[in-house]
Amino acid sequence: MSKQALAIVDLQNDFCPGGSLPVPDGDKIVPIVNELIETFSRAGLPIFATRDWHPADHVSFKEQGGIWPPHCVQNTPGAEFHPDLQLPEGTAVISKADSQARDAYSGFDGTNLEALLKKASVDQVVVCGLATDYCVKATVLDGLKAGLGVTVVEDAIRGVNVQTGDSQKALDEMKAAGAILVPHTAISP
User: Which residues are the active-site residues?
Assistant: First the structure.
């Protein structure tokens, strides 16, 4: 029998309006994500929340030759999860890109996420969060590479769109790789 888990990608203050690297309308997904959390909690299924957890001199920052402004620096308000996000006790927090010299968009990259999913006998991951065209896409593609079934909750993600159309390209790429794209109302674990 299939077992699902919810993976909430980088729903952090710096990626929401008012943060240092805001995703347009990034905060608008919080109520939908909270509904998903409630659904998974009621079903007794595991919930994972990834977060960027950068040192202050991270390689992805412009000052170090990267492309992004400083964001999600460890132990700062910007790195905290959105204050309205209702993560239940027992949520597994997965920190990524937490060493100076290595970037990581995917929640699987350099973390124990895959091992934790296997330990929990999870074979299907439902993904939501920020940003569609970067960390969500990378997490989805790595989940598929790990042999997991991956469902993307289309109305519970938002993109940066550095280039016009980046989010749509990311959705197309995820779908072509085997991800299933659905609205949150179609999720029933």
Answer: 10, 96, 135
Backbone angles phi, psi at 133, to 5 degrees: -90, 0
**Rounded alpha-carbon distances, angstroms, from residue 130 to 8, 91, 133, 145:** 8, 18, 8, 20
Q: Tell me the CA distances in angstroms from 122 to 33, 99, 138, 188, one per residue in order.
A: 20, 28, 19, 15
Question: Given strand 149-158, what is the order of strands in its sheet?
Answer: 92-96, 47-52, 4-9, 124-130, 149-158, 180-182
The three-state secondary structure class of 93 is strand
Supply 20's token pair.
């240092």
4-50+82-91+103-186 is classed in which CATH architecture? 3-Layer(aba) Sandwich (3.40)
Type of residue numbered 68: W
**pLDDT tens-digit readout, 90-127:** 999 999 999 999 999 999 999 999 999 999 999 999 99
User: What are the start-end ranges of the E strands in the chain?
Assistant: 4-9, 47-52, 92-96, 124-130, 149-158, 180-182
Q: Per DSSP, what are the bridge partners of residue 149?
A: 124
Report the predicted TM-score, pTM, of the whole model to 2 decimal places. Answer: 0.97
d(CA 4, CA 11): 20
- Residue pLDDT, tens place only, 147-188: 999 999 999 999 999 999 999 999 999 999 999 999 999 998
Q: 137-145 and 166-177 helices cross at what angle (nearest 10)?
A: 10
